[in-house]
Design goal:
The complex is a heterodimer. Chain A is α+β, with helices and mostly antiparallel strands. Chain A is 44% helix and 18% strand. Chain A folds into two domains: 201 residues, Metalloenzyme, LuxS/M16 peptidase-like (Cytochrome Bc1 Complex, Chain A, domain 1), CATH 3.30.830.10; 181 residues, Metalloenzyme, LuxS/M16 peptidase-like (Cytochrome Bc1 Complex, Chain A, domain 1). In chain A, the strands form three sheets. Chain A has a six-stranded mixed sheet with strand order 1-2-8-3-7-6, sandwiched between helices. Chain B has 16 helices and twelve strands. Chain B is globular. Chain B has two domains: 207 residues, Cytochrome Bc1 Complex, Chain A, domain 1 (2-Layer Sandwich); 189 residues, Metalloenzyme, LuxS/M16 peptidase-like (Cytochrome Bc1 Complex, Chain A, domain 1). In chain B, α2 packs across α5 and α2 packs across α8. Chain B is an alpha+beta fold. Classes of the chains: A alpha+beta, B alpha+beta. At the A-B interface, α3, β7, α5, α6 and β9 of A face α1, α3, β4, β5 and α5 of B. β9 of chain A pairs antiparallel with β12 of chain B.
């Protein structure tokens, strides 16, 4: 991996006279350019292992479903089911006979196709040829669509038997209302049932285009090779247009409570509201503040209040999921049914208290030490770096995002956190979802 | 085979640039320290593996190993409850722990210059755990919530639990790692104290370190922190051998669910006890890959895509366990098919493995993937340390890491056919079916959007 040691050390030395000595970190040196078709490329040369990770992302997530719930996900899932002259079997055999993998999927913002391959031949050539074809010439064949449709419907039904998934999907609907982020990427039974080949073809034509794509590359290849690979992978795509920005997310206008009757031993309690976007001016105060509140696993405030002090839940967390438009702020836990109200109260009290008081100096210092001291872990491994590249490219973050990460964490003050939380989180306008047996409903089981 | 060996020869020098050899040292108190230098990134993973897990537990205390794992974060005389995690976090570490059938492991991922922090804390809790009763009461409640989350409210997981309880008559693999609900309710602090004293000692543990470190420096640090710890008399674990199965076993699990689920398990040997027949577990590994070693293999190709009988279908087997286990086939039927159809289709796959040797091309594809994955796994120090820890803990030893790909690659179609005939037999089979029961209301019962604030106390 390319090293820019001197730069980081000078930053670390500058940063507030850390009590923590900064580990010399091999920061990935990001190179970026555009393909002739107009796709943005981010590349990090990582010569140590004879392998290459490619992640091609499109602004083609479920936020683009446009009245066809499940369309973006079905389009992505159908890519490896046949392309050009190859059917699904042939695509799979081609990749696996050289030890390579190909995964395609869609989230709310982005659709992605990821490939990992050895850099030696014939692996590299085979993987690139397959990936290029899958991106540019998917078949979307009728029988494959029918099969995936049925299996997606089965998957959706399996989600309905999981109280955590039921709660999460419901909370997104409560938070987002009519906004395209409301729906889950894999759609609804009605939406999936209605999808047609024409829908997929049109979606692919509009969104799987070079100017709507980012190509992230990490591996044992040279810059010249990376340029050729990025050209090749995007060569079959139309230039097209970038997708327009998603609509703004309106704030909730008041509190919302949704109780879903469910046959389970636990009640899942989820609370949320619109949070923040990538590149948000409040990103670092909210991120560092949430690390204290509920983002730092075993040592967060929520974990302390809910689990360590009271033994109410195995898992309890809060997070901001920054997206193109405001992604959600979420808090959640699960507890046996007769404790659900108590646990919800602890969750809410902890949030209110944190918004009011912000972190103590000691809490803030501890969070910073964890985030900055742990930074090398975040970028250790090609798999992690390629995800960062895709994220940086997709959201148009500055190329020095990783270089400046620790410095920007260090710069956050307790006052900035208090201020940002007070402006951005609204305890009187939260959506709350409870999934579990409702009073008077079916008897609970095994409890 | 020639092609394969050529590929191995070509790959190894490249991979070797990043992955140095493994080095080990045994301290006088019996702690084995295994270090693998990997200098790709300035990070290190430190893992302490204890040879203790649910398969060591006797009736009445199932789940004790896992509860004890939770209690390992609840303080020593020197570091009170919660301080372990606080110190690791302040040093930028990721940490956690996990309990399995054959091991309990604790890990910290850290920047390379923080290794000593982990050693100091892990050495302390290896012998000096406080186990305060008040913390135990709360943590037991947390584990009971974990059981509800992971098992009771997850119909497929519940099916898996009951499946194992029926498939194994004597083997401790019949018990769930998290413990039976009733045993958890009766667990007390003395059970934990006893369990801790019996198994937590340097001579029942392996310290695994992988990352940007110097092995000699790690050994010195290990001597400093773990060296003073006293060894313990560790009793040999009973083998509790599973008697031969005398005919098919079948069970139904009725639980609230939307989709059925099928599990089929054939008793199968593990590598550790295989002796002269030690090719058999490797052949079973390859057999499982022939069925489910990627999207091009038989279950995906023939049952999900071809016949479209399965929405999902998997095959799993591990040669690297302490006690003999099972080769398990599981799946969900596709729309328009029943679990009976899926069972029949999976059995037809099994019969085919007995009747005809697998194709050379199919086998070659699996071998190529094995070799590629061997390179890919070097991308993560954590994954490399996991392999060492598992092999040490189940009694096989880490040197197997450098051999198992070759051993797998040597397996022939005839050997796969032989293990299919020997182990995938009707009398050796257990079948579990999840029979979905109605869930409460399919739709939300009511929505209170206005008025009452959600946080009213």
């Amino acid at each position: 991996m390319s090293v820019s040691r001197s730069r980081l050390l000078s930053l670390a030395a500058l940063a507030l006279g850390l009590s923590l000595t900064q580990a010399a970190s091999a920061l990935p040196q990001i190179q970026s350019w555009q393909t002739t078709k107009g796709a943005r490329v981010l590349f990090v040369e990582a010569p140590d292992l004879p392998m290459l990770d490619i992640r091609v992302v499109f602004d083609a997530g479920s936020a683009r479903d446009g009245g066809h719930p499940g369309l973006a996900a079905m389009t992505a899932n159908m890519l490896p089911q046949g392309a050009g002259d190859w059917d699904a079997d042939e695509v799979a055999v081609r990749m696996e006979s050289v030890g390579a993998s190909l995964v395609a999927s869609a989230l709310r913002d982005m659709a992605f196709v990821s490939t990992r391959t050895l850099t030696r031949e014939p692996a590299l050539e085979t993987a690139l040829e397959t990936l290029s074809k899958v991106l540019a010439e998917p078949r979307f064949a009728g029988p494959d669509l029918e099969r995936l449709r049925q299996n997606t419907l089965t998957g959706l039904r399996q989600e309905e038997q999981d109280p955590g998934t039921v709660a999460q999907k419901a909370l997104y609907r409560e938070i987002y209302g009519d906004h395209p982020y409301a729906g889950a990427p894999n759609g609804t039974p009605e939406g999936v049932s209605a999808l047609t080949q024409e829908d997929l073809t049109a979606f692919h034509r509009q969104y799987y285009v070079a100017r709507n794509a980012v190509v992230a590359l990490v591996g044992a290849i040279t810059r010249a090779q990376a340029e050729a690979i990025a050209e090749r992978v995007t060569a079959g795509l139309a230039a097209g247009e970038p997708a327009p920005p998603p609509p703004e997310v309106p704030d909730l206008t008041g509190p919302k409570t949704l109780r879903i009757d469910f046959t389970s031993t636990q009640t899942h309690v989820l609370i949320g509201q619109p949070g923040m976007r990538r590149g948000d001016p409040d990103y670092f105060p909210l991120y560092v503040g949430n690390h204290v509140l509920g983002g730092s696993g075993l040592v967060s405030l929520l974990m302390d209040e809910v689990r360590e002090k009271r033994g109410l839940s195995y898992s309890v967390y809060s997070y901001f999921l920054p997206m193109r438009a405001d992604g959600p702020f979420l808090m959640g836990l699960q507890t046996k049914n007769d404790q659900a109200d108590q646990a919800r109260d602890v969750l809410m009290e902890t949030l209110r208290d944190f918004i009011l008081k912000g972190p103590t100096d000691a809490q803030l210092a501890a969070a910073k030490k964890n985030l900055t001291g742990g930074f090398p872990l975040r970028i250790a491994g090609n798999a992690k770096v390629v995800e960062y590249l895709a994220m940086i490219g997709f959201y148009g973050l500055p190329l020095d995002y990783l270089d400046r990460f620790t410095e920007r964490v260090e710069a956050v003050t307790a006052e900035q956190i208090r201020d940002a939380f007070a402006r951005r989180l609204h305890p009187d306008r939260l959506a709350l979802v409870k999934v579990g047996p409702q009073p008077g409903a079916v008897a609970k089981r095994g409890d | 085979m020639i092609k394969l060996l050529a590929l191995l020869a070509l790959l190894s020098p490249l991979a070797a640039q990043a992955a140095a050899k493994v080095q080990e040292l045994s301290l006088d108190n019996g702690l084995k320290v295994v270090v693998k230098e990997d200098r790709r990134a300035p990070v290190v993973t430190s893992q302490v593996w204890y040879r203790i897990g649910s398969s060591y537990e006797h009736g009445g205390i199932t789940g004790v190993s896992h509860v004890l794992e939770h209690m390992m974060f609840k303080g020593t005389e020197k570091h009170p409850a919660g301080e372990f995690s606080r110190i690791v976090a302040e040093n930028g570490g990721d940490e956690n722990a996990f309990t399995g059938r054959d091991y309990t492991a604790y890990y910290q991922n850290l920047a390379k210059d923080r290794l000593e922090v982990a050693f100091e804390l892990e050495a302390d809790r290896m012998r000096n755990l406080a186990l305060p009763p008040a913390e135990f009461e709360k943590e037991l409640a947390v584990v009971q919530e974990e059981r509800r989350l992971r098992t009771d409210d997850d119909p497929e997981s519940l099916t898996d639990e009951r499946f194992n309880a029926v498939a194994y008559a004597a083997s401790p693999y019949r018990n769930p790692v998290i413990g039976w609900e009733g045993d958890l309710a009766e667990l007390n602090i003395d059970d934990l104290r006893n369990w801790y004293r019996l198994w937590y000692a340097p001579n029942n543990a392996t310290l695994v370190v992988v990352g940007d470190v110097d092995a000699e420096a790690v050994f010195a640090l290990a001597r400093k922190h773990f060296g003073p710890l006293k060894a313990e008399q560790i009793a040999a674990a009973k083998q509790r051998p599973e008697p031969p199965q005398l005919g098919e076993r079948r069970l139904q699990v009725k639980a609230p669910a939307k989709e059925p689920y099928l599990m089929m398990g054939y008793k199968a040997p593990a590598l550790r006890e295989a002796g002269a027949e030690d090719w058999e577990p490797y052949a079973l590994e390859m057999l499982a890959s022939i069925l489910d070693g990627g999207s091009s293999t038989r279950l995906s190709r023939e049952l999900v895509r071809g016949a479209q009988i399965a929405a999902q279908a998997q095959a799993s087997y591990s040669a690297f366990t302490r006690l003999p286990g099972m080769l398990v086939l599981d799946g969900t039927p596709a729309k328009g098919h029943t679990v009976a159809d899926l069972e029949q289709a999976l059995k037809a796959q099994v019969e085919r493995l007995k009747d005809e040797p697998v194709g050379e091309e199919e086998l070659e594809r699996i071998r190529t993937q094995l070799i590629a994955n061997k390179v890919f796994e070097l991308d993560s120090v954590y994954a490399q340390a996991m392999q060492i820890g598992v092999l040490e803990s189940v009694g096989l030893g880490w040197p197997l890491i450098d051999q198992y790909v070759e051993r797998l690659s040597e397996i022939t179609p005839a050997q796969i056919q032989a293990v299919a005939r020997k182990y995938l037999t009707a009398d050796n089979l257990t079948v579990a079916v999840l029979d979905p029961q109605p869930l409460a209301g399919d739709a939300p019962t009511h929505t209170a959007k206005a008025g009452a604030s959600p946080h009213v106390r």
